[in-house]
Amino acid sequence: MSEYARSVTIAYVVVFSALAISLTFSRAEIPFPLLPYLKFDFAEIPVMLALLLGGLAPGLATAVIHWIGLSMARGWVLGPLMKFLAVAPMVVGFWLGIKIWKIKSLQKSMVLAFPLGAIFRVMVCAIANTIVFLFVAPDFLKFSVGYLKAIGLNVSSEIDALLWTLAFNAIFNVLHVILSAAIAVVIFIAAIKRIPGIAGKVWLPSKTK
User: Fold this and answer.
1) Which pLDDT tens digit goes with each residue over 61-120?
2) DSSP label at residue 204
3) 121-163: per-residue pLDDT in tens?
4) Using one digit for the tens of pLDDT, what is the confidence trace for 158-208?
5) CA–CA separation, 117 vs 10, rounded Å?
6) Cα radius of gyration (the chain)
7) Residue-range domains of the chain with CATH
8) 157-190 CB burial, b ≥16 within 10 A, e <16
9) What angle (nearest 5°) sits at the alpha carbon of residue 168, between those of residues 161 and 41?
10) What is residue 83's predicted lDDT score, i.e. its pLDDT?
11) Buried b vs exposed e over 9-46: b needs ≥16 C-beta within 10 Å?
């Protein structure tokens, strides 16, 4: 990597990390109606922008700094860690989807990016949530039961509660991938159209057709 490319990569990480942390501290988020303790977090959008503009390393670096900022903002460890375990697989899956399908159209390169980003995120979150609910913090599952019963579900056992919670978590994570990635892609397309100099420096197809 040239000195110029390295400088640009560092700039992406600094700028988008700062933006993600700013959004975190401003609590730019929307509760998920089925399980309101889950939040659609707009701080994920800068992470995806760092990925789209700089590639995997800047995307993951921004996710790590966002994790640290979220830990500072929330003042605890588990929640921010779970957020990181959602964002990082999404970044990796999205990147892998684009790399597998090496084509020149940005829209077509998203065909695998979105599904793989969602699949990676859902799988890792399902494993992480199962460990947390059953071994690390079982009280969280009891907390979730209250929300499940509030929407009319008949939760008669711990297994029922776990399966319903994992199912709603999966729906939430798929929707979050669509939200975060779609907004980031729209911003990315607008940026390369308005600032053509960026197009020749990004790692993925910059043509929009």
Assistant:
1) 999 999 998 888 777 889 999 999 999 999 999 999 988 877 667 778 888 899 999 999
2) S
3) 999 999 999 999 999 999 889 889 999 999 999 888 899 999 9
4) 999 999 999 999 999 999 999 999 999 999 989 888 876 675 567 776 565
5) 24
6) 18
7) 3-31+38-199 (1.10.1760.20)
8) eeeebbebbbebbbebbbebbebbbeebbebbee
9) 130
10) 95
11) beebbeebbebbbebbeeeeeeebebbeebbebbbbbb
Contacts of 67 by beta carbon, 8 Å cutoff, 6+ apart = 80, 81, 83, 84, 87
d(Cα 140, Cα 142) in Å, to the nearest integer? 5
Q: Which two tokens stand for residue 157?
A: 């056992």
d(CA 50, CA 168): 28
Residue where the block lists tokens 């992470």: 47
CB neighbourhood size of 199 (10 A): 14
| Separation CA 11–CA 199 (nearest Å) | 16
Question: One-letter amino acid identity for 73?
Answer: A
* Residues belonging to the chain: 209
